[in-house]
Write a structure and sequence with these properties.
Keywords: Signal. It comes from Culex quinquefasciatus (Southern house mosquito). This is Hemolymph juvenile hormone binding protein. Residues 1-19 form the signal peptide. It contains four helices and seven strands; from the N terminus they run H-H-E-E-E-E-E-E-E-H-H. Helix 1 (12-30) runs antiparallel to helix 2 and helix 1 crosses helix 4. It starts with 11 loop residues before the first helix and ends with a helix. The protein is an alpha+beta fold. Strand 5 (136-160) and strand 6 form a beta hairpin. The chain is elongated, with a radius of gyration of 20 Å. The longest helix has 35 residues, at 207-241. It has one domain: Super Roll (Bactericidal permeability-increasing protein, domain 1). The structure holds 2-acetamido-2-deoxy-beta-D-glucopyranose (NAG) (2 copies). One 2-acetamido-2-deoxy-beta-D-glucopyranose is lined by residues 208-209, 212.
Amino acid sequence: MELSNVVVLLILGFAGVSCMKPTLINECKKGTPNAERCVLAVAERMRPKIAKGEFPEGFTVPRLDPAFIERLEVTGDPNFIAVFENVTVSGLKAFHVDKLTVHTSDQQISLVTKLDYIHLKGKYTMKSNLKMLPPVDGAGYATLELTNVKVLVRLHYFLIGKKGAKTVRFLPTEFKVMFDGDANFALTNALRGKPDQVTNEAINKMPHEILNKTKPAVQRHLSETFTTIVNHLMEDAERERK
Ligand SMILES: *[C@@H]1O[C@H](CO)[C@@H](O)[C@H](O)[C@H]1NC(C)=O
Ligand SMILES: *[C@@H]1O[C@H](CO)[C@@H](O)[C@H](O)[C@H]1NC(C)=O
């Protein structure tokens, strides 16, 4: 399975957690007033390493920038069907965490990560018939430039294992992507027989039409990948310790 993904950036908080080892997690749990600072400090220390994919030997976490999405399918709406394949995502290493909150009472961590600029490039097929857009029925290459993307994640964390060998697992309870900035699509061959420029100009007048339709699939994909990566990281961290 191809784990590399946009969301690796979000692990920063949790890669932090994984490297804190259970003792520190317990510290963060007990020392309620300093929980945020404790997690953030480790996350910040880990950030450059996560961005470059520099993990200790034995870790199998993929590189963050550029990241890779093998396949993303958007279905569920007969008026909008799309498949994106072999998508390269760059710009992720500039992520920053705007907010991180540890709710010790119900063992939840929430964080908001912001990306100032992302560039995506890959293959696409799309069939769309949306009210506000010219119809799209094409296949070719697509690029997308986004500014100001926010990702909000809320995870439940829990300790597993026996006394003295406890470890942490995460379960996402909320995962939201917000496209707060500009978006610019460039599709080739989006409408057979029409010049690319005409279709793209129309799409880019209302890029949020397509973004909105794509969002649930993106969130689902990211949430799954994210969970896998985070829990995978935890396993690696445990193996390291042994
Ligand atoms: C995606 O990349 C893989 C590996 O390079 C390749 O086998 C596959 O044909 C590509 N898919 C498309 C749609 O280009
Ligand atoms: C996006 O979708 C939501 C519902 O999922 C809707 O409330 C909102 O108006 C949509 N925005 C655009 C620009 O289509």
